[in-house]
Amino acid sequence: MNTKGKLGLGILISLVVGNMVGSGIFMLPRSLAEVASPAGVILAWLLTGFGVLVTALVFGNLAIRKPKLTGGPQIYAKELFKRGSKKSTLSGFMSTWGYWIGNLAGNVAIITTFAGYLSTFFPILTSEAALFHVGSFTLYVGNALTFLVCTILLWGTHWIILNGLENAGKLNILATSAKVIGFMLFIIIALFAFETSNILPFAEPKVNAAGHSVDLFGQINSAAITTLWAFIGVESAVVFASRAKKQSDVKKATIIGLLIALAIYIGISTLVMGILSQNELIASQKPLIDAIEAVLGPIAGKILAAIGLISLFGSTIGWIMLSAEVPYAAAKQGIFIPAFLKENKKGIPTFSLVVTNILGQLFIFSTVSRSISQAFDFIIYIATLSYLVPYLISSIFQLKLVISGETYTSMKSRRVDFAIGIIATIYSIWVIIAGTADIKTFSFGVLLLLSGILFYNQLNKGSKPE
Question: Which of 67, 203, 211, 286 lies 20 to 30 Å from 131 when distance is taken between CA atoms?
């Protein structure tokens, strides 16, 4: 088999780690402090880590058992129904649409976080000086410049990817290596600066926006969808399975990448809570930088910000690659609009890349009227809920294979995969229920998902899957 231009184990692992350890690690300590006590935060990380681990095992298993179904977990939706039927095509299309929308929102969460950390060097990005007024709307200098920075990063990354996935993947490896080294240094420094008093009381009720007291279980419930955002991207190797040098590398990259990310998340999240007080953490727009500055001063903050910018740049490359690959791979399976099959001489899905980034540009408009933290919180909720449906579908598809016995020769492996599939299914349903408790977020997410119906008629029903 010709492996030229294919992705090896190292690049696949870097895509998994790079896409997971992106905006989440930089902004989530603040988001979590708002909804949970330190005990609730740590328990939410552990529970989510376990839930994502079983989900990752599902992805890895399906990548090996169904190697021709490439492009991401949403692809399995069409396999739940009779092949070639309208139900199969519609479910595949709608699942792909929702997953793609989640990717678009995810891109913007990373890009807006990049702008937030860039403000360490250019404070004008947070300026509240009024630029102009239109009725009740006021455009501030900081918001306008943030919008400009996000736009340049989006289309600059677009140009890099057009020059080849392998080169973009190598840049992602360099950025991922820089972030892992930087985070390890942060953990070592933070260990010496940890103040137990900052995480006390360790477990206490929180008061929500409605003024109601929330117990520990309620806090874990509220934090579940937020912590899950940090693991979105664990399926990155599965999305690029068709471009992998070896199919066996897909499962290895998924599990190794997840374990690296989990260690980083729990370590940094716990240590940040031990450096900043809960009130300081909630008020922070750049929690990691504020924490390191509290220990070593502003120069250390700038060094960490620089590492953060490199990390987020790499994540932007990885996520835009992922986003463009999703509708392209679905179109190859015959369940998405055929125009997305267009590619250049280097095999880059050009039409998909252009449309993905144009829609991403629309999401970037959220930075015009919101602070970085507000835009981040809003976007990650929408994105995470969009991902959960394909995750749930993947688990159900594994159960279907186990029950039918398709691809299995051993009863022992069927039992193991059945248990994993059941746990992954329960986990996905639980987080969906927890995440949709906010009717506003739920309604907006459903509206985005249903908007795909408007484009379904563009799908050439006569196209044949590969």
Answer: 286
